[in-house]
């Protein structure tokens, strides 16, 4: 359902992604691991077109964008195919939990206010945040804010959810509640790409793990075999360092 071919991205002289090729099936959960600076965030940001690739093709569902035959319409359509969950939640601070979810529905998707509210409440319930619907982000814990961010990402019914280190900014005792929500989504067969340092979680939840270093995919395979039996020296070294 997602296919990336010959994707490259550079910032000035720094080639951050080098000829990335990737295919992801509907309902698949893919974890991306790798050292800091290896290009994991840039890859997610390219999929969501927060960054424009220099070369290559990205296809999600039936929408494709080729860096050589560029159409604005494809760009707008492709962006709608995915939704991102960021490390620092990026909620609207001046909106309540519920408004954070209904705003993109009302403004972006032109859904009526009542219907948006119904959908928003049901999404809050799904992430266990219904009791907090009318609270502002600042009054909530990091874990609670991240669960709202996940509900907001789900609201636009994307083909794929992109998570960029969703638990890295959380207090340790708050990590679990966010991983729990993500586990639930995985069980519902929502397609997800998750950049994470939570190896136990990745091993348990991901169908596949991709190890990146220096802008390339070094090794990929079933989660358990990558973690328990990495083949490449760089993967072995990385896993030794973080566990
Ligand atoms: P990771 O998420 O794996 O830590 P990133 O994708 O954030 O890695 O970064 C990969 C490389 O790209 C790093 O060298 C980083 O400094 C560089 N980089 C990322 N974003 C930008 C940007 N907007 N401008 C310039 N360089 C960037
Ligand atoms: Mg990153």
TrEMBL record:
<feature type="domain" description="ABC transporter">
    <location>
        <begin position="2"/>
        <end position="239"/>
    </location>
</feature>
<keyword id="KW-0547">Nucleotide-binding</keyword>
<dbReference type="InterPro" id="IPR003593">
    <property type="entry name" value="AAA+_ATPase"/>
</dbReference>
<dbReference type="GO" id="GO:0015424">
    <property type="term" value="F:ABC-type amino acid transporter activity"/>
</dbReference>
<protein>
    <submittedName>
        <fullName>Amino acid ABC transporter ATP-binding protein</fullName>
    </submittedName>
</protein>
<keyword id="KW-0472">Membrane</keyword>
<dbReference type="GO" id="GO:0005886">
    <property type="term" value="C:plasma membrane"/>
</dbReference>
<dbReference type="InterPro" id="IPR050086">
    <property type="entry name" value="MetN_ABC_transporter-like"/>
</dbReference>
<comment type="similarity">
    <text>Belongs to the ABC transporter superfamily.</text>
</comment>
<dbReference type="InterPro" id="IPR030679">
    <property type="entry name" value="ABC_ATPase_HisP-typ"/>
</dbReference>
<dbReference type="InterPro" id="IPR027417">
    <property type="entry name" value="P-loop_NTPase"/>
</dbReference>
<keyword id="KW-1003">Cell membrane</keyword>
<dbReference type="GO" id="GO:0005524">
    <property type="term" value="F:ATP binding"/>
</dbReference>
<dbReference type="InterPro" id="IPR003439">
    <property type="entry name" value="ABC_transporter-like_ATP-bd"/>
</dbReference>
<keyword id="KW-0067">ATP-binding</keyword>
<dbReference type="Pfam" id="PF00005">
    <property type="entry name" value="ABC_tran"/>
</dbReference>
<dbReference type="GO" id="GO:0016887">
    <property type="term" value="F:ATP hydrolysis activity"/>
</dbReference>
<dbReference type="InterPro" id="IPR017871">
    <property type="entry name" value="ABC_transporter-like_CS"/>
</dbReference>
<keyword id="KW-0813">Transport</keyword>
């Amino acid at each position: 359902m997602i296919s990336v071919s010959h994707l490259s991205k550079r910032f000035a002289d720094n080639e951050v992604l080098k000829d990335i090729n990737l295919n992801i099936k509907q309902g698949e959960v893919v974890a991306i691991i790798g050292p800091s600076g290896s290009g994991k965030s840039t890859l997610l940001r390219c999929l969501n077109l927060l960054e424009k690739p220099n070369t290559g093709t990205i296809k999600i569902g039936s929408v494709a964008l080729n860096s050589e035959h560029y159409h604005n319409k494809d760009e707008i359509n492709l962006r709608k195919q995915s939704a991102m969950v960021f490390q620092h939640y990026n909620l609207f601070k001046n909106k309540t939990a519920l408004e954070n979810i209904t705003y993109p529905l009302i403004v972006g998707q032109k859904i009526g206010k009542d219907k948006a509210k119904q959908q928003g409440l049901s999404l809050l319930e799904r992430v266990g945040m219904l009791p907090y619907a009318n609270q502002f982000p600042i009054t909530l814990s990091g874990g609670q804010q991240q669960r709202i961010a996940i509900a907001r990402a789900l609201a636009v019914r994307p083909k794929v959810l992109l998570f960029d280190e969703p638990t890295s900014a959380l207090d340790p005792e708050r990590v679990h509640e966010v991983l729990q929500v993500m586990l639930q989504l995985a069980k519902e067969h929502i397609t997800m790409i998750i950049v994470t340092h939570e190896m136990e979680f990745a091993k348990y939840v991901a169908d596949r793990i991709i190890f990146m270093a220096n802008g390339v995919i070094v090794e990929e395979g079933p989660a358990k075999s990558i973690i328990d039996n990495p083949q490449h020296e760089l993967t072995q070294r990385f896993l030794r360092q973080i566990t």
